[in-house]
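Friendly challenge for the regulars: who can give me the structure tokens for this chain first? No prize, just bragging rights.
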Amino acid sequence: MQAIVLREFGGPDVLRYEEAPPPTFGPGEVLVQVHAVSVNRTLDLKVRQDGGGYGVVLPHRPDHAVARGSGCPPARRGDAIVW
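First reply, four minutes later:
Bragging rights claimed.
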């Protein structure tokens, strides 16, 4: 799969679009295909610039916000998931 990968902190030019393994998920979690995303100014921009004090370990994929945890409602392949 293709993913944005952050291998160093800095400006927008440090973001790389590259091949990456699909994210892992466990019991009670689902993997969803994402068609559109937004940028969270507080989290995404600060992490890209200097880690933001969040304990980010490089390389980092800023795709964590699209994961769905335990207790999610049942879904079938092709369902639109909005939350």
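Strands lie at 2-6, 15-19. The radius of gyration is 14 Å. Your move, everyone else.
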